[in-house]
């Protein structure tokens, strides 16, 4: 266990690294503090989150940029933008490197959170913060993985967000920035990763409604933070509801189309059949018929004249 002097030294180093925008150094200081103390004060938890968020953000952004250069249904040959299709193999190799970097950071954070959650089991607000952070880093893992690995990351993110949300409703005001941030990220998981549009809308709508209560009890800084997160939720709701309407319109159009096809098939079945209804010929059939007619015609020419 680190003594007070050691703790203050590591925390001070992290703060100085933050001022210098040296996120790797800041993250290393906070990682060491977690390893040596197995517990963090609330302000130290904020430092931990800030360090790793800023360390990971440029790697995630790079991954999304590189991924956009690979073929997709909308852009079958985007590699041409960076020197032709021959670049695709290099792009894929570099994306694999970025994926490994993202997963490495996420796994490190998740491992650090485990002892902190145990130490914070009697501090509800801190536990909400740590559940949210765990959900976020499992969600980041889901961004860059596929198949069973992605499914596992999504399940872990859901578990963390659900646990944090249930606890937040009991111990935090609806306008608390932490509770709003948790709802924001959970709804994004539902929309972007799970394709659960209705669930995303429900989570965001409930958070926006709850945020209208308790603003008076917040500090000025928290009110600004709360307003910012509420604004993001409202913006997402507007976009997602428009998407929901588009999906409903597409579903209705498809349903009408299927009904018209079914009606046409029923009408066709009710019509009396003629030879043309059930005899179809391809090109070979037509050629054979023409040949048969030609033989008939030739045969007639060869018949002896009638008496």
Automatic annotation (TrEMBL):
Domain 14-3-3, chain residue ranges per copy: 7-254
SMART domains (UniProt xref): 14_3_3
SUPFAM superfamilies found in the cross-reference section: 14-3-3 protein
Xref: Gene3D superfamilies: 14-3-3 domain
Chain segments carrying region Disordered: 247-307
Biased composition, class Basic and acidic residues, residue ranges: 288-298
Family: Belongs to the 14-3-3 family.
Protein name stated in the entry: 14-3-3 domain-containing protein
Organism expressing this protein natively: Acanthamoeba castellanii (strain ATCC 30010 / Neff)
Species classification: Eukaryota, Amoebozoa, Discosea, Longamoebia, Centramoebida
């Amino acid at each position: 266990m680190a003594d007070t002097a050691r703790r203050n030294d590591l925390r001070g180093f992290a703060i100085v690294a933050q001022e210098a925008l040296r996120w790797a150094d800041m993250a290393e200081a906070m990682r060491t503090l977690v390893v040596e103390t197995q517990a963090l004060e609330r302000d130290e938890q904020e430092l931990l989150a800030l360090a790793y968020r800023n360390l990971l953000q440029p790697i995630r952004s790079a991954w999304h940029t590189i991924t956009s250069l690979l073929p997709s249904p909308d852009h079958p040959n985007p590699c041409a933008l960076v020197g032709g299709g021959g670049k695709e193999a290099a792009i894929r190799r570099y994306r694999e490197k970025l994926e490994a970097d993202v997963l490495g950071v996420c796994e490190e954070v998740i491992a650090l959170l485990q002892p902190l959650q145990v130490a914070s089991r009697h501090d509800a607000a801190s536990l909400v913060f740590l559940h949210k952070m765990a959900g976020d880093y499992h969600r980041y893992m889901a961004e860059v993985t596929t198949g069973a690995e992605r499914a596992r990351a999504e399940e872990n993110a859901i578990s963390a967000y659900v646990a944090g949300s249930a606890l937040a409703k009991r111990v935090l005001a609806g306008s608390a920035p932490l509770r709003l941030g948790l709802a924001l990220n959970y709804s994004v998981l539902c929309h972007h990763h799970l394709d659960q549009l209705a669930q995303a809308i429900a989570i965001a709508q409930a958070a926006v409604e709850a945020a209208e209560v308790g603003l008076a009890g917040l500090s000025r800084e928290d009110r600004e933070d709360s307003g910012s997160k509420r604004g993001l939720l409202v913006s997402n709701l507007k976009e997602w509801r428009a998407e929901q309407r588009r999906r409903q319109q597409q579903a209705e159009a498809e349903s009408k189309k299927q009904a018209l096809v079914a009606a046409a098939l029923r009408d066709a079945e009710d019509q009396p059949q003629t030879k043309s209804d059930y005899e179809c010929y391809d090109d070979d059939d037509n050629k054979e018929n023409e040949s048969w007619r030609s033989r008939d015609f030739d045969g007639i020419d060869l018949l002896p004249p009638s008496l």
